[in-house]
Amino acid sequence: MSEHRVYIDKQSPTVYQGLTKAAAELRARAADAGLSRTTLELVNIRVSQLNRCLFCLDLHTRIALEEGESPQRIAVLPVWQEAELFSDVERAALTIAEAVTEVTEHHLSDEQYTAVRAHLTDDQVSALVWSAIMINTFNRISILSRHPIKPR
């Protein structure tokens, strides 16, 4: 039985356009704060893994690869804590990403927050928290709309 899902981004295009404009502004602020696009894409991929968002995983993996991210680092992202392939800034970013995504299960402890702050400026913390919030929002849009992916 085929079920029709409303693509809420298409149904309410001005709302979605506002989100995409906010995402572009966020990327610009993150760059101004010294965060690389690949760091942001690692956040996007990790959050999308946790949320099991098919569409966003496909999209952000492709973008990360285009930006020069390595297939190896993307492959081990689910176990990033065990891999010595990520910088201190990337580790801090991934810690924030997971805490924002799993906010009902755990928050950043004071110890984790202190560790994150050792590697990030105020602007970087803000940009990374907003980035995790933003990709969680886009995940929910795609998951609930059941956006498909096409083979490439």
UniProtKB/TrEMBL annotation:
GO molecular function: peroxiredoxin activity
InterPro entries found in the cross-reference section: AhpD-like (IPR029032), AhpD_core (IPR004675), CMD-like (IPR003779)
Superkingdom of origin organism: Bacteria
SUPFAM superfamilies hit by this protein: AhpD-like
Coiled coil: none
Domain Carboxymuconolactone decarboxylase-like: 19-99
NCBIfam families linked to this entry: ahpD_dom
Name recorded for this polypeptide: Carboxymuconolactone decarboxylase
Organism: Mycobacteroides immunogenum
